[in-house]
Design brief:
The protein has 324 residues and is α/β, with parallel strands linked by helices. Helices cover 30% and strands 27% of the residues.
Amino acid sequence: MARRAKIERFGGPSAIKIIEETLLAPRQGEVRMRNRAIGLNFIDTYHRSGLYPIPLPSGLGLEAAGEIVALGKGTDGWQIGDRVCTFGPELGAYSDERNVLAANLFRTPDAISDEMAASVLLKGCTAEFLIERCAQVQPGQTVLVHAAAGGVGLLLVSWLKHIGAIVIGSVGTTDKLGLAQQAGADHVIVTNAEDLAERVEEITRGAGVRATFDGVGKDTWETSLRCTGRRGIIASFGNASGPVTGVELGRLASAGSLFCSRPTLFDYYREPAERAAGAKRMFDLVEQGVLTAHVGQHYALEDVVYAHQDLEARKTVGSSVLIP
């Protein structure tokens, strides 16, 4: 019997139930994947709550790492025992075993553990496309990373420093300051103690930053406008505090002819070649030691309700994993 998380209605964390079921044999193009570690991501709460509507009933979770334990037809090139990882787009990673499309798998490099792969794949590829393909940050440019001690935030900071950017990170409380500094941030601003926009203006001598990476959403939108310099870009890639709504395009003009993108991972990882290139670039940096996922929390699969509660209450630091 396989265990998996399921929702039958949208709602709070209590909407998640753990069920047991018998898996059918993998179909054409599918393999059976046994999960060793499962990544917890804020987007999972959007699927659960209905902020990003999905057909119901549904599984939850995009990211997991483990091994292939059975093969369907049409899966040439894969073998039982291969170590693999995935970030979707199929939902259902919150499980101990499941059937997945082989086309949605990546090979886990030998030097990378399952826990690391499940912690870094989705977040690391998010950092890759935001920095290198969306904002196209160049060495010497000054950038701002909101929530710099979060799972994506820490990877953004490390990656940006690696390519030679000057990084300003924001954190909500002083207990998260050290993590952002360790990741390489040149300046860390504690937002419950300082005015972020004023400090950015001071640091940049009034020029503002070239790029702002904003995964917080509603609560930081106005600040992002104030912090981003003339002809800079705001990459608004998340809604941790709620979605940004009612945006007047004229605000982008008055703030300095700004660009704004609301990018999503799967629009940058659609084609096999770009999927392979992006993941390779990310895993190469992990193997070089440039990137590492700080795993701040471990939860049993059965404790996924508590994991969602902690995530939404912003009690977590770095990445969180579920262990089947």
